[in-house]
Amino acid sequence: MILPSVTRILAPFSDFSKIRPDVLEAAAAKGTRVHAACALICKGGWPVVAPEEQGYVDSFLRWFSRVSEVHHIEEEFQDEAMGFMGHPDLVVTWEGRSMVVDLKTPVGLQKLWELQLAGYGHLVRKGTAVEAVATLQLDPQGGIPKAHYVKNEAQAFAAFFAALQVWRYLND
User: Fold this and answer.
1) 62-81 pLDDT, tens digit each
2) Confidence band (pLDDT; 50, 70, 90) for 5?
3) Which of 1, 5, 57, 167 is most buried per CB count within 10 Å?
4) Has this prediction a pTM greater than 0.70?
């Protein structure tokens, strides 16, 4: 059985209808390139990026300089019993805390990110101790990125689980 991913389960709740398709496509491509550059840095490499993406990478480097250990980079985690899987961007030890981190390039916050992180947190905790889950909103000008922690992870996971149940009902 192919398990649905956290992002696929939550996709129906993302409304991009007010964004022109070409703008949305360009933003998605930029996000993919920035994620790849950050993953390469975590693996000890040094990426070459377009000038318009350098700020995001510089922002990531400011944060990453305080990471003491990288545990997982874009690895797949599964919960076959619950019937879903996911690929969190990073699991690291940052300033003494083990945490799941999801990198973000949009300038605005989305509440749906909390459900995504709660799903990732559940998956990672099946085999790794994690103290926190957070998005890391990278700054396009290279400034200090903003970490947004999920404060009520149990509530966010309950909402994610409800979305999973709806997904199962509609797709099984």
Assistant:
1) 999 999 999 999 999 999 99
2) very high
3) 57
4) yes
Q: How many CA atoms lie within 13 A of 83 on its CB side?
A: 14
Residue 57 resides in a domain: yes
Report the half-sphere exposure of 150 (CA within 13 A, side-chain side): 31
Which residues sit opposite 103 in a β-bridge?
136
Pairing of strands 132-137, 97-104: parallel
Q: CA triplet 8, 14, 20: central angle to 5 degrees? A: 115
Measured CA to CA in angstroms, residue 74 lies from 15, 91, 114, 156 at distances of 25, 9, 18, 22
**Three-state SS at 154:** helix
Residue 103: pLDDT above 90?
A: yes
For residue 1, is it within any domain?
A: no
Range of the domain at 77: 6-10+19-171
